[in-house]
Design a protein that fits this description.
The chain is of the alpha+beta class and 499 residues long. Among the domains are: 44 residues, SH3 type barrels (Roll); 70 residues, Serine Threonine Protein Phosphatase 5, Tetratricopeptide repeat, CATH 1.25.40; 135 residues, no CATH class. Helix content is 41%, strand content 18%. The strands form 7 sheets. Strands 2-1-17-18-16-15-14 form a 7-stranded mixed β-sheet. Helix 2 runs antiparallel to helix 3 and helix 8 crosses helix 10.
Length: 499
């Protein structure tokens, strides 16, 4: 299944994880004087306090003295019904505006009904079609299922789309190996690598002495460069208005809703537009003309972000494919993470959704490029790509030096459900090498391979066999993998692709 949410999590590595879609029904909302918001179901009220059951099932008792306002779930529905009754039957703009409002209030079902009405009035309305998950192909709009069936000729097998031939084999119990060959499954032991390359997993009769040290980084890492004090001070400044008073700032490519200081919001507008230009340049793809600007919400603090989204302290931000919105907070998280890294990673997925048809790109492409942009640097004027994500490279070097790594022939066949933190490092390094390995002539040839890959995502799902074909076949791809291992092991942490 395609990711529903992607979230950036702090730890030794920046890790992407998956969660379920947020609740679709409206909820009671309690807004606090300190800017916090608690949502859920109000189950009891007195003159002194309000008791609410949060979306996680926890009971929370809030003093009336701390409450700024209470919005009942029905209040938004009542307002929606009132506004809808005032709409004229053929008011296209009115229905579109009300659909956006309903979506913002988490009235998803009602918003979808309004988008359907917009399509009745304007069958080719891009915003409404995209909001309902339609995909355009050869001048026609398709639902997700119709696109997979009618355009790609795929059929459903459990929770994934496969060819009719593959479905027949799967129903008979066959499995596909790394070479693309089908056969009966054989009993196998545990994998010889884990998500952490420092943890050796023993297979077969191999024994591991308890005093053996984990693999070490074959290269010394450069000293950690402390962030500029002015930058740290900027991220630590959480002065803001309440989220209820947040403004939406419109840049060339984004709609950014935030309650940070106006000058901070303008800095984010400029930064995000520069990332967008880089997305277009690297992917060599542009969104369809008339598509809606990308939406980003930035809370002024981590506490406010957690209160409003229900996310844990370890989450720096996420992208929701249902609303197509990136949500993050202003500040630092983990050891080295900042809002910039979060926005860059999640906005990459957001852009991918605008230019790559649903379900056509394998997970290693999606996440590999997200890490690539996550590591980019913004100097206040432009985004400079090619910076090494040192934590990921360090883990990968240790894995390669000890033999605990994921072969590329396996990486390009890994499903989303099996994609771990360690896969992210491999996917990034594969893409990084394709962009920066060799002389200008070789780089141009390698980049042409990626251009062809992206072109093929427009036509249908890119299989592992198709990737190997672009390298000259399976044997040539295995040869490339050997080069990749040597190149990554020798790759300096301070590698500068511009020199």
């Amino acid at each position: 299944m395609r990711r529903m949410w992607t979230s950036l999590v702090c730890g030794a590595l920046l890790v992407c994880s998956f969660a379920v879609r947020a609740p679709l029904q409206a909820e009671d909302i309690i807004k606090l004087f300190n800017g916090g918001v608690v949502s859920g179901e109000i189950i009891d009220e007195t003159d002194d306090e309000v008791t609410i059951r949060t979306k996680r099932g926890n009971l929370q008792v809030i003093s009336r003295a701390d409450i700024y306002s209470v919005e009942r779930a029905g209040s938004n529905l009542d307002e929606l019904e009132s506004r809808q009754a005032a709409l004229r039957r053929f008011d296209l703009d009115g229905h579109l505006e009300l659909a956006r409002w309903a979506l913002e209030k988490d009235l998803v079902d009602e918003a979808h009904a309004l988008f359907e009405k917009v399509i009745d009035l304007d069958p080719d309305n891009v915003e409404a079609r995209e909001a309902l998950g339609y995909r355009r192909y050869d001048g026609k709009w398709y639902t997700e299922a119709a696109y997979m069936q009618d355009v790609l000729g795929m059929v459903l097998w459990e929770d994934r789309w496969v060819t009719p031939e593959q479905k027949g084999l799967l129903e008979m119990g066959f499995v596909q190996n790394e070479q693309g060959e089908w056969g009966r499954p054989e009993p196998v032991g545990p994998s010889n690598y884990s998500s952490d390359p420092g943890d050796r997993v023993v297979t077969g009769s191999e024994e591991q002495p308890s005093d053996v040290e984990p693999a070490r980084d074959p290269q010394p890492r450069p000293p950690v460069v402390e962030r500029d004090p002015a930058e740290r001070a900027w991220y630590d400044d959480h002065e803001a208005v309440a989220w209820a008073e947040a403004k939406t700032y419109e840049s060339k490519y984004y709609l950014i809703k935030t309650n940070v200081k106006p000058e901070y919001a303008k800095r984010y507008m400029k930064m995000m537009d520069q990332f967008y230009l880089r997305f277009q340049e690297v992917f060599n793809l542009k969104p369809e003309q008339g598509s809606r600007k990308s939406e980003v919400w930035i809370y002024a603090s981590q506490q406010e972000f957690m209160q409003n989204t229900g996310m844990s302290q370890g989450v720096g931000g996420f992208y929701n494919t249902g609303t197509r919105r990136v949500t993050a907070y202003h500040g630092r998280f983990g050891n080295n993470g900042t809002t910039q890294e979060v926005l860059a990673h999640e906005a990459t997925h957001q852009f991918q959704d605008k230019v790559i048809p649903f379900g056509n790109a394998p997970i290693w492409i999606l996440e590999g490029f997200a890490v690539f942009f996550e590591s980019a640097e913004y100097d206040g004027e432009q985004v400079n790509i090619g910076t090494i994500p040192q934590d990921r490279l360090s883990h990968l070097k240790r894995g390669l030096s000890s033999g605990d790594y994921i072969p590329l022939v396996e990486l390009i066949r890994t499903s989303q459900a099996q994609f771990t933190a360690y896969h992210y490092a491999h996917a990034w390094s594969f893409i990084y090498m394709m962009i920066y390995y060799g002389d200008k002539k070789m780089q141009k040839r390698n980049q042409a391979v990626f251009s062809e890959l992206f072109y093929r995502t427009k036509q249908g799902y890119v299989t592992a066999e198709a990737v190997e074909e672009l390298f000259g076949g399976h044997d040539k791809f295995v040869e490339f993998e050997a080069m990749w291992k040597e190149w990554v092991l020798d790759l300096p942490y301070d590698f500068d692709p511009n020199n």
